[in-house]
Amino acid sequence: MFDSLRTENRVTQLSDCNVVLVPGAWHGAWAWAKVVARLRALGINTLAMDLPGQGRGDGRHDLEGHADVLQSVVSGLTGRTLVCGHSYGGAVVGEATLRSQGPLRLLFLAAFMLDRGECCMSVNDVAGESASGSDSFEWVDDDHVLIPREAAMEAFYRDVIPDEAQDALDRLTPEHRDTVYGIAQHAGWSQHRSSYVLCGRDRAIVPAVQRKMATRADLAYYLDAGHSAMLSHPELVSAIMVAELLREDLAQTGEHPTQGLPAAVAK
C-alpha cells in the first residue's frame, strides 16, 4: 500500500518528516504502537505521547496542561510535521498553539475538533447515543474519572482483536475532569491545514457528531471502523498519515493525496 504513495518526483523524503501522535482520554502512547512501528519502518521520526495524568507521568493533568506539553514537543521539531490526535487527543491538538520549524499539518482521527467555548462532553452528549457519554463514567475521586471496562469495550474496542482489546482495557488510567470537561480556548485547526478521519462504526463519538466536526477540516477521510482505528486498522491509518505528509508533493505530480488508498478510505 505504501508503495503506491511514493513518486520519483516528490521533494520530501519521509526520513525528513515527523509524526506526533496524541492519545485519547484514559489512553497512553501504547495505543499507537502498531502505527508507530509502521511509520518508523518507513524512516519517519515518530513520537507517541504519554500525556500527564494518574499512572502516566507528572505535570498538569488538564486540557491546558496537556496542550502545553504537546507544544513543547512540536516546537523542537524540524522538517515537515504531522500532529495527529485521537478522540480527546484532538482537543489537545486544537488547544495547543502549535509552532514548528517546518511545515505543519493536523490530523484528527475520530477526534474532538473543538471550536472555542466547546468541550468534549458538551459536544459528545448532544447526540445522546455515545457509549462513552457522561452517564457511563465512574468517578474515582472528586476530580478524576474512569470509564468502566464494559462501557469501554462497547465504546472503544468492538472491532479490535479480543486479546488486544483486553490488554487495552487493563491499561486504561483515570483522567482529570478538566480534560474531557475542559473548555477549549483555541481552535488550532483554523490556523493550520487540517484533515479529519471519520470512523463510521464508532460508538464513542458517533458518526453524526464526527460529521459536524469534520466540516471544519480541509479534507475528510472515511474508514469503516470503530473508535480505535489505530488498533483495528493500523495499516490504513498509517497510509493516511503518509498521504498527509506527502500532500504538497503529490499535488505537484497531479496525484490526489488519497490516490492508492482503498476506495473505502477516500471520502
TrEMBL record:
It comes from the Bacteria. The keyword Hydrolase applies. InterPro entries: AB_hydrolase_1, AB_hydrolase_fold, Sec-Metab_Biosynth_Hydrolase. One of its GO terms (molecular function) is hydrolase activity. SUPFAM superfamilies: alpha/beta-Hydrolases. Keywords: Hydrolase. Pfam families: Abhydrolase_6. Residues 19-239 form the AB hydrolase-1 domain. This is Alpha/beta hydrolase. It comes from Nocardioides immobilis. The lineage of its organism: Bacteria, Bacillati, Actinomycetota, Actinomycetes, Propionibacteriales.
